[in-house]
Design brief:
The complex is a heterodimer of chains A (314) and B (108).
Chain A (H helix, E strand, L loop, with lengths): L1 E9 L3 H12 L5 E3 L19 E2 L9 E2 H14 L3 E3 L3 E5 L5 E5 L4 E9 L3 E3 L5 H6 L4 E2 L2 H4 L7 E5 L3 H10 L5 E5 L9 H9 L3 E4 L2 E7 L6 E6 L5 E5 L2 E4 L3 E3 L30 E3 L11 H20 L2
Parallel strand pairs in A: 1-2, 1-8, 2-5, 8-19, 10-17, 11-12, 11-17, 12-13
Antiparallel strand pairs in A: 3-4, 6-7, 7-8, 9-18, 14-15, 15-16
Helix pairs in contact in A: 1-2, 1-7, 5-6
Chain B lengths: L4 E4 L4 H7 L4 E6 L4 H16 L5 E6 L4 H6 L7 E6 L2 E7 L4 H9 L3
Parallel strand pairs in B: 1-3, 2-3
Antiparallel strand pairs in B: 2-4, 4-5
Classes of the chains: A alpha/beta (314), B alpha/beta (108).
Chain lengths: 314, 108
């Protein structure tokens, strides 16, 4: 009925894969339940699968493509004996040991230790029209869909690094990229903000949120509301890309693991220990301060070391 | 490549769909689209497992602009299931094998 594994790692972004490398090298024979294909950033490889060049991960003076970086991490983990299963974890029971993990492919596992590295997925706008227009002009992946907007005007919603990266990428195809942000200043890094401001195709719409999307069958316009004045305007766009942030993938752990109001898992002090002994959390699932590939990778290493030492002490 | 996994083009699109004796799942994809490449092996597996019930046609959007425009494809991967040459259901974005089969089996 169920199979036993010593260590199960849930998630396969930089955190999960670094944990896998370290756990495998510590002879813990980890099983990585890597997730299922999706275009929402919760797929195997995590958020970097939807980007193009990663310029800030140390060790790559000329940058590296996100998917290539993640493929390398996976190969490295496999080299040391990590096992991979392409599936989502559908439910867990960590109230008693060994822990039980159910997956979307029907397989059930028990484990002595679990490392949670499920990261975060893209936040959507939460509008009714979204379901209808996703794939018809509304998108969460600029690198996948920018191509379809050559010669048209598009909009990106968001004010962080992801939003600006998407906007910069889209400016290669679109005639104009409207960056819609709900505040009057960007929260992106200085270098991205400088580049964005210097790009003549980018136009910023401040203090605004999208309240509706118009068009049938394809997107024609976004309805914007100025959060300071309440004024509503219609912005004709051929494409709209949502980059407003992420929500941690912690639904299956609610009820078992302590988390903050936003859903991020709580870890103890500077460690990766959660409130349940034998369950460790690393990467964006427990970090909403830094959220970088390199910090996720660092915490993945920490989780594997915490896990190894805890198992030895049992 | 199994014989129910075909390469579609603007030129052969209509005749292939009309001539097929099973429903045809058209996969709009491109070389530079990560999620498209992730589902490619899954589609190959589904082609083998549903051989005789389903045909899968891959249409590269870089080379075939007419067909994508005809069906308002603005996001990839987009999978459209055709029956008798008519679009029946559209799936946007990469999905896992289980989810894909669940959606498709309803129409097969």
């Amino acid at each position: 009925m169920s199979e036993h594994r010593h260590v199960v790692i849930v998630g396969s972004g930089p955190a999960g894969l670094t944990a896998a490398i370290y756990a495998a090298r510590a002879n813990l024979a980890p099983l990585v339940i890597e997730g299922e294909p999706s275009s929402d950033s919760d797929q195997p490889g995590g958020q970097l699968m939807l980007t193009t060049e990663v310029e800030n991960f140390p060790g790559f003076p000329d940058g590296i493509m996100g998917p290539e970086l993640m493929m390398n991490c996976k190969l490295q983990a496999e080299r040391f004996g990590a096992e991979f299963l392409t599936a989502k974890v559908t439910s867990v029971d960590v109230s008693s040991r060994p822990f039980t993990i159910e997956t979307s492919v029907g397989q059930i596992f028990t484990a002595d230790a679990v490392i949670v590295a499920t990261g975060a997925r893209s936040l959507m706008l939460g509008l009714e029209a979204e379901k209808r227009l996703l794939g018809y002009g509304l998108s969460t992946c600029a690198t996948c869909d920018g191509f379809f907007h050559r010669g048209f005007e598009v909009a990106v919603v968001g004010g962080g690094d992801s939003a600006l990266e998407e906007a910069m990428f889209l400016s290669k195809f679109a005639t104009k990229v409207h960056v819609i942000h709900r505040r009057d200043e960007l929260r992106a890094s200085k270098i991205m903000a400088d580049r964005a401001r210097a790009n003549p195709k980018l136009e910023f719409i401040w203090d605004s949120v999208v309240t509706d999307l118009i068009g049938d069958p394809t997107l024609e316009a976004a309805v914007l509301k100025n959060v300071k004045t309440g004024e509503e305007t219609k912005l004709p766009v051929h494409g709209l890309f949502v980059a407003i942030g992420h929500v941690p993938n912690t639904d299956i752990f609610k009820g078992f693991l302590d988390h903050d109001e936003a859903g991020y898992l709580k870890t103890i002090g500077h460690s990766t220990y959660t409130n349940v002994d034998g369950v460790f959390a690393c990467g964006d699932v427990q970090d909403h301060v830094y959220r970088q590939a390199i910090t996720a990778a660092g915490s993945g290493c920490m989780a594997a070391i915490d896990c190894e030492r805890w198992l030895e002490a049992q | 490549m199994s014989d129910n996994l075909l390469t579609l083009t603007d030129a052969n699109f209509d005749e292939t769909l009309v001539g097929a004796d099973t429903p045809v799942l058209v996969d709009f994809w491109a070389e530079w689209c990560g999620p498209c490449k992730t589902i490619a092996p899954i589609l190959e597996q589904i082609a083998t497992e549903r051989s005789g019930q389903l045909t899968i046609g891959k249409l590269n959007v870089d080379d075939n602009l007419a067909t994508q425009a005809r069906f308002d494809v603005m996001s990839i991967p987009t999978l459209i299931l055709f029956k008798g040459g008519e679009p029946l259901v559209r799936l946007v974005g990469a999905k896992g094998k289980g989810q894909l089969l669940e959606e498709l089996d309803r129409y097969l």
